[in-house]
Amino acid sequence: MVDLNSVDARSGASTALDRGPSSHEEVSTLAQQAETGFRWLSEQSRGARADLLNDLATALEDNQQEIINTADRETAIGVDRLRGELTRTVGQLRFFGRVILDGAYLDVSIEHENTSLPLRTPDLRRWNVPLGPVAIFGSSNFPPAFSAPGGDSASALAAGCPVVVKAHGSHLATTRLVERLFRQVLEEANAPPGVFQVVYGREAGILLVEQPEITAIGFTGSVSSGLALAERAASRPTPIPFYGELGSVNPVVVLPSAAAVRGESIGRDFATSVTIQAGQMCTKPGVLLVPVGPEGDALVAAAAEGLEKFAPAHLLNSRTRDSFVHGIRDVLSDPRVKQVFPPASESADQVAAVLAVVDAAELTGVHHSAVLEEHFGPFAVVARYRDLSDVLSVLRTLPPALTGAVHFEDEDDDGRVIAKELIRRSGRIIYNGFPTGVMVGWGMTHGGQFPATTSDFTSVGANAINRLLRPVTLQDAPAALSPLELRDDQTMIPRRINGVLHTESRTK
Amino acid sequence: MVDLNSVDARSGASTALDRGPSSHEEVSTLAQQAETGFRWLSEQSRGARADLLNDLATALEDNQQEIINTADRETAIGVDRLRGELTRTVGQLRFFGRVILDGAYLDVSIEHENTSLPLRTPDLRRWNVPLGPVAIFGSSNFPPAFSAPGGDSASALAAGCPVVVKAHGSHLATTRLVERLFRQVLEEANAPPGVFQVVYGREAGILLVEQPEITAIGFTGSVSSGLALAERAASRPTPIPFYGELGSVNPVVVLPSAAAVRGESIGRDFATSVTIQAGQMCTKPGVLLVPVGPEGDALVAAAAEGLEKFAPAHLLNSRTRDSFVHGIRDVLSDPRVKQVFPPASESADQVAAVLAVVDAAELTGVHHSAVLEEHFGPFAVVARYRDLSDVLSVLRTLPPALTGAVHFEDEDDDGRVIAKELIRRSGRIIYNGFPTGVMVGWGMTHGGQFPATTSDFTSVGANAINRLLRPVTLQDAPAALSPLELRDDQTMIPRRINGVLHTESRTK
Asked: Alpha-carbon distance A250 to A270, whole Å?
């Protein structure tokens, strides 16, 4: 029984995958194998895990053309963008190798026993250990970077957690290819297959969340699917953490000081940011707050002009296109929408860019309007405001987002006021710039207050590993039974010893 | 309408509190004031927050006799133990002052912009910011250390989060006193009252969880109350994290190598650990695994002898006593219980220590037996085992706990096997010791897999502050708008700069 298809995003042509959905039994077997994978990973040094990450990276690199072509056929993202994304994914795997070699993520703290006090205090050695097998639900819009070989997998394997990926239905062949490549790397490393596995089919994903061996979920997708899985994760006999990146309408505030000096260039850059990857980015700027008046008008005109230049494009799949078309129809039927640039075009299977203009004051306190929802695709709202209190009201009406941006001139103190408000709601604040483009590095935060993410964490950058670790303290452990990183003679990683943090560790 | 009473734990005599339960309106007002407190705290430097923590500590110290006497009357814990607990609470507030001055908790990472690449990478500055107002539900058994002025409050205020405590019904007068003392300190510091507040009454606690201003919950208490509140926290329009320390049956494994060499002293120390504070400790050793045979017999005899010496004691309150008496009755009616030391005594209001002996093999896979549940009071189970697989089976049958302990001789490799199993389930592993006694310091972990705690964290020690922080990255922020800790010229705290961790920060 084969009922899984790889679909060409442009032509709609469907090819049967070389396998069907994972059965209940298969999911349960994979979860048990993940447990075996966990034991194997626990026996590997950090160096060996970094080598494995590098080998996985090299396998992607060596087969990049096939991956890119397959992903392009399944998603219509385009080979150039996909090449960039693959490079990022390769770099991300290697970066996490460096993160674990650095060792700060272990957060080691050693307190030697103290027998000079009336009551002896024990020897305490604290560090972070991996949670266990992790289930990963990737996104539709980044077939490598936020999917099977993406940030969740890289941070999990770095932590020492085996991975079971639920293959995303919109790029099954790409995932199947990655699975094959990674399995080969594992074989060559004499690693058990349970270190990295994939399940196929919607039902298998749900079953996966319920397997007792699974200890955490990484999810990137819609609010509705995310919350449904989160509820399952929470209602297991043993609840497990659910790290979901859900929806994000990213606000960009342009203060009058910036509109006056560089309104048109802000408008142009905004149009570019909205239409990157046909607007199918979780960091797409969704609402642009622009002052009323001629300088704001010029900014909006420049943005509209930029959007007009966007060549109609195929979206990721027919479901994404349908919900975009319906969503925009809902937006445009809202009486609050005053203007539309350019007039909405509805070709059979490609979509044009759309900009809807509203009055900021009319958004305050509004809930359940399509205008304030995320629409995956080349669309944004411009909200024209009269004063700062209008802006603050809109920001407080919008659900918290992954990012917030503010444009202002240096001497303008309102920039500080807006940034302060944005910081309360988002994990990344952009000053005089746009939110698209999320660097993989030590300093990145990709997360925000609910519903941007289900709780406060980052799913991108070094600290993404923190989600998959838990703290353990060994009390009076014999040195011979302590992991290397907790021994007095270890000198390679940052450690806190008797309360003092050393980047080059010292012994007693 | 006064219907809140402070009850003498020994005599049962009841005194009306000088106030009634908090009304719906009062809870909502306090939550709004907490928001004002949050804004005030956000404007204070780390140094100012540390000063505030020190002032709160001093207020407790200066009024220790009154606090200890009030708490002793309400809990029957005894003035000596309460004096120790107060000293710990005072030290804990000051310790968190040092934690924030140290600054590592901010986890600062600075990546300077790079314009030498084809695509410029932005300037990224990451740190941790406080969540916002926190609701705290303290425990019955530590009126200062895990209640109004305890670890949850100390770590929250250190993080910059205002606190609203739900007063525990079993030490209302103690909480009222702490509230008065802390309010005075806040007044003297010109802080708004919203920085530290208290609500009274069961219903007020539930309302508190639902206030939109509250951003996290700290809870120490029973599994049933904890899960009920956790569900409310999760089903708010904006779900918030619930950090619950629930129940813990702490296993102590004695391997034959240790039983042979020092069985009797292990037995004696076990009896002491079980009866500290009349066994009303979340770290009380609940199950002792002892090998069958004469050496194990001697160990058990020594433990029984130690428990016999325990003078019957008042428990914290009549509810605790009733559930202890009923719980032990359930245990003793279980046919698996082979022996009881000493025979259960049931005086009207004081309880004696009880030890029930079972066969380890009969516990494997057993669920819902009183034998495997936590019983708050001077009680423990001894499980006699035949071989290592018996031990592993019992450990896997028991719910995960805060701690796990193993006694063995150095050359005994089974110690490693048991420790490995314990590490998968608990946050603190004790080698050749007992779990009671939780040091407040940099290296402590007080938490474990569910249901020991609701998720993996520590509620004691420096890292308890992590629960109340969230990551934020500022992208291309003008230096003038950056917090001091993120500026290039800052040199006082550990920071990662362009990927390298410096304990003394460097500039570009």
From this structure: 12
